[in-house]
Structure prediction request, 837 residues.
Amino acid sequence: MHGTRILEEADRLMTVCNSCRYCEGLCAVFPAMEMRRAFSDGDLNYLANLCHACGACYTDCQFSPPHEFNVNVPKTLAVARAESYAAYAWPRVFAGAFARNGLVISLVAAFSVAAFIFGFAAWHDWKVLFGVHTGPGAFYKLMPHNAMAALFGAAFLYAIVALVMGVRAFWRDIGEPVGMKTDAAALLQAIRDAGELRYLDGGGVGCFNEDDRPTDRRRLYHHFTFYGFALCFASTSVATLYHYLWARQAPYPWWDLPVVLGTLGGIGLLIGPIGLLAERWKRDSVLVDEARYGMDVAFIVMLFLTSLTGMALLILRETAAMGPLLALHLGVVFSLFVTMPYGKFVHGIYRFTALVRYAMERKAMAHGAGE
Amino acid sequence: MADLNRKFDVLVIGGGNAALCAAISARRAGASVLVLEGAPKFYRGGNTRHTRNMRCAHDAATEILTGPYTEEEFWDDLLRLTGGQTDEELAKFMIKESKDILNWIVEQGVRWQPSLGGTLSLGRTNSFFLGGGRAMLNALYLTAEKLGVEIAYDAEVIDLEIEDGMFLSAKLKQPIDGASEIRASALVAAAGGFEANIEWLKEYWGEAADNFLIRGTPYNRGSILKMLLAKGVQDIGDPTQCHAVAIDARAPKFDGGIITRHDSVVFGIVVNKHAERFYDEGEDIWPKRYAIWGRLVAAQPDQIAYIIFDSTVVTSFMPTLFPPIAGASIAELAGKLELDPAALEKTITEFNAAVQPGTFDHTILDDCRTAGISPPKTHWARKIETPPYLAYPVRPGITFTYLGTRVNKQSRMVMKDGKPSANMFAAGEIMAGNVLGKGYAAGIGMTIGSVFGRVAGREAAKNARN
Prediction:
């Protein structure tokens, strides 16, 4: 007996799949399944997070609907995956945020933006908010750098603590002893697998989207999004180092590293989310967890807005629009940070963790077979 | 869809591996091609949707094959498994052609992978389809569509107009786009056998056929085969024979595919509805033992049997779709199986008493055997004594039939008078009996389908041009 209805269904499917095994060459889920004969809740949550939702196993399955065995692994694991996010959320009281995620993220974003606008206004004169500020330290006329760093540092730190607690719960549930010796090789393997989205390729032909033809570009758009995000994060990190190590204050000229990184990342973070959203719309609803549409869209839109407001700020930073745009950008980024542990962002964290576990299992199996 | 009232160069009836290889090969040779698949789109492909590999000869190891499998070795295997019931010339031709199929099929979009978990014994001889048979079919259909092959689903053919061995037209049950009669210059029949046609099976098996389970779709009814044989095509293969394995009695009537199979016979005993053993469960190793049990169960009363084992062996075989039925005692298990408890206890007690000491090894013909009972269990005999006691109910699962149309090396049908047909070709299960008069070896059905499908398509296109 399992904790939830969807885990019951996942167990039923894994029993069907384990007696077939035709899909074992497609991705990591099926080889991991084959290492087991029975499935605990943790095992199923592990498999659910290992699944990259490429859809190949559905299209290839001789038992998918309308067959009476009704095997739909991508959808079932998508639902189980989303429910696992709530199950591992920390603190528990925020688990409900996953239930109506689109609404929650929208509200947090709206309040954050409003808070920055009113904050700037309350702190200074309205004229400062709509004034033209240029040269080093221009942003800090609206909000002192230390206040900005403290606020965002705290938000980021909170997100990290909450995410670590979630991963800890996940790691325990999928059966790894806590505090186990770090396995560098497995970690490296997982970084490589995640970095190239190895299992989002339908076993080599690409993802399945609106029909049985692999035409999907999700992997490409995801790369734009992920590496765009990474570059933006690098931009912020470099800027922080500039500020504290060399006392060089933003805004920086267009050719300077933070701006170059931020611009490149920003472009990726505009193209990627638009592509992902378009693909999300096109996908056959039989493959996806329709109830979590809001969660997916909210996260994609937040990433897009982060980039859009950042790019607008870059372009219009020497005009009177700078103040409101800064408030807008900071509001979006702040809400992105604080909602990280309670939205689609966690998919990357849990999937990466599952990949680490898979790399370790593979090694243990190969080792065992060699003995 | 194109105008179906026009005359096509090549009409392919059927929708599996052989049909699609024929369609692609004919189209690549420049012919206009229409494929009529009698099943709905989801169930397209007949038995191909349940396959997973193909047996092709190769002179050296490849990326996915662990070693060479020469033409000679393939021929020796075929000779042994058919007991000589094979057309040597055709069989050797097929084996030779199979070498190139390994590459040709990849050019049609099919992808290979090394042998699946639990099938290590096939790693050298058989190439596995990445994602299984339906993935293979999807790739072939995609290629056929891109090449401009016309494909119609739910397109059941109810009559063939044939004059003196010459195909003229096919009549559809339901008109498609206003067309109810399809004309073509050449016909490729690749519509499989009659394993899903219970009425036809009853002609040879009587009422017992009602208790058969069919491993493939309900659309493998053999109607095209029947029409061809009725219109002068020479038959081949024993009409009374079919390939049957023991599958779980709880499986659906049709299309349970590979996952309902049981490979646990050697780890226990098999009893019939009277709780009596009826055959040596340890006679031979896989796959031979696997293929005989369908027939053995078919010969038992009510066509049902029970594989009985104990809790010590549950991890010795692949996980099963249906869980074993369990009982804390033999009597309790018998109750759940609706067998006579006293009879089952007697059978197991006698069996246990007959088990001789030995060293168990399921990978070889080991020395664990019984003494003094009939039938004996000649290998892998161990006492059934550790509860819970477990059982799988099994019935005959019919995979394919052997009756087919006689063909020559061009895959061209041969008429009853011995003359080759003017424009009719056959490929796949519908002509498998030419090569495979009896028996089976993993992946050989797909080899027959791809090799003769490719040849049939090419020859039909050539025929249509002339």
In short: The domain at 8-238+402-465 of chain B is CATH 3.50.50.60 (FAD/NAD(P)-binding domain). The mean pLDDT of chain B is 95.
